[in-house]
């Protein structure tokens, strides 16, 4: 594609970057995308979504879905870029880049519509940051009749021009837990008359650390972090109640289930040992982003035509793309977006995506959509 095409696309990204909207409030962004697509003759399909857009190019089966997330974060931008955010929010995860590359891909695929061997469904997904958007899209019917789905996240630790990919887990299963412990308040001088909530909580936390150390195979991995404890107010009273919270990260669906099961057992039996009551609340966080065993090598090989494709390690971050992969085959890649040795990480107020990263992201969508249409057509 020409420089004119990419110059226009870069301007589009800068505009989107200046006008970020946080999860489930992507109203102007939704309008912007709809207008952009309508102007180039792409049909918007009316799914019941509050925010986000689903559109289609081509007709008939198979259907390959391309997904980009569109939401921003409640962060005040400090990049000093001339196209920095004009609002009290920031595209600090680079979703401005994701949606722009999908707009660019749509524009290219539209010019090839007559030759498409099926349908490309464009999913501009809202609310990735609060892990609600993929569920909303699935609920609205966005995956209906879709054979496979392709997505990616920009990665500031890879250079523009690089794609990182692997079969199996590429992003972690994320668990968010909050454990409330109810003991029995007593004078600090008469602990025998109460149930010690403080000792119960600290013992539970100690015991939890044995899960990863003693029950996860050395060939698998998991992380369990308790990050916040709140119990008691003063020096001479044993408190009646307290809580702690934190997160678990896993990379294998089986390991995930096993760690959750052991977590529950340890929390309950330790509390029981002290005679305390306990309850566990789990957040609505994503499962393992697990790349399809058959499709990933196809995309890995095919992407070598336009990018340097490298076998990547999984990230310990989470992605609600995992929800799609629970339903249908899916492939999720990392696309290089910065590559400087000290490039700021996702969700930092000085996070920067380089403009020159766009062509590989556009090609990733276009070329792999065509490749998978062909694959499912022959199947
Ligand atoms: Zn993010
Ligand atoms: Zn993100």
Gross morphology:
elongated
Radius of gyration over alpha carbons?
A: 24 Å
What does the main sheet amount to? 8 strands, mixed
The molecules bound to the chains, other than polymers, are:
zinc ion
Keyword list:
379 residues; alpha/beta; Aminopeptidase; Alpha-Beta Plaits; eight-stranded mixed sheet; four-stranded antiparallel sheet; 25% strand; elongated; binds zinc ion; manganese; N-acetyldiaminopimelate deacetylase activity; Bact_exopeptidase_dim_dom
SSE order and pairing:
Elements: H1 3-18, H2 27-39, E1 43-44, E2 53-58, E3 63-69, H3 95-111, E4 119-125, H4 133-139, E5 146-155, E6 162-165, E7 168-171, E8 173-182, E9 186-187, H5 197-215, E10 222-231, E11 237-238, E12 241-250, H6 253-274, E13 277-282, E14 289-291, H7 295-302, E15 308-311, H8 322-327, E16 330-336, H9 358-378
Parallel strand pairs: 3-4, 3-5, 5-16, 6-15
Antiparallel strand pairs: 1-2, 2-4, 6-16, 7-14, 8-12, 8-13, 9-11, 10-12
Helix pairs in contact: 1-3, 3-9, 5-6, 7-9
One zinc ion binds next to loops.
């Amino acid at each position: 594609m020409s420089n004119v095409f990419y110059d226009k696309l870069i301007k589009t990204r800068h505009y989107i970057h200046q006008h970020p909207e946080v999860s489930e409030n992507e109203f102007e962004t939704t309008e912007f995308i709809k207008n952009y697509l309508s102007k180039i003759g792409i049909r918007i399909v009316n799914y019941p979504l509050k925010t986000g857009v689903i559109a289609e190019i081509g007709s008939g089966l198979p259907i390959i879905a391309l997904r980009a997330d569109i939401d921003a974060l409640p962060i005040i931008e400090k990049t000093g870029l001339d196209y920095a955010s004009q609002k009290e929010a920031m595209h600090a995860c680079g979703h401005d880049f994701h949606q722009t590359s999908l707009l660019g891909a749509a524009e290219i695929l539209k010019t090839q519509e007559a030759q498409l061997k099926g349908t490309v469904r464009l999913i501009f997904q809202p609310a990735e940051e609060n892990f609600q958007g993929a569920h909303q899209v699935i609920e609205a019917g966005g995956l209906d009749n879709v054979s496979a789905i392709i997505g990616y996240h920009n990665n500031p630790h890879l250079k523009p021009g690089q794609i990182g990919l692997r079969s199996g887990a590429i992003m972690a299963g994320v668990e968010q837990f909050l454990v409330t412990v109810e003991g029995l308040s007593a004078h600090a001088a008469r602990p025998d008359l109460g149930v010690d909530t403080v000792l119960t909580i600290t013992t539970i936390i100690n015991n939890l650390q044995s899960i990863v150390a003693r029950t996860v195979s050395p060939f698998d991995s998991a992380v369990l972090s308790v990050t916040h404890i709140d119990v008691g107010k003063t020096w001479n009273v044993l408190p009646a109640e307290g809580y702690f919270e934190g997160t678990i990260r896993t990379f294998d669906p089986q390991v995930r289930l096993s760690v959750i099961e052991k977590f529950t057992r340890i929390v309950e039996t330790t509390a029981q040992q002290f005679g305390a009551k306990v309850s566990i609340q789990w957040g609505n966080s994503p499962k393992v982003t697990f790349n399809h065993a058959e499709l990933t090598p196809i995309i890995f090989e095919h992407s070598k035509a336009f990018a340097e494709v490298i076998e990547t390690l999984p990230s310990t971050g989470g992605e609600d793309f995992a929800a799609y992969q629970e339903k249908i085959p899916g492939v999720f890649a990392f696309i290089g977006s910065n590559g400087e040795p000290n490039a700021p990480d996702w969700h930092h107020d000085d996070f920067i995506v380089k403009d020159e990263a766009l062509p590989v992201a556009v090609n990733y969508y276009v070329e792999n959509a065509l490749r998978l249409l062909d694959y499912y057509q022959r199947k």
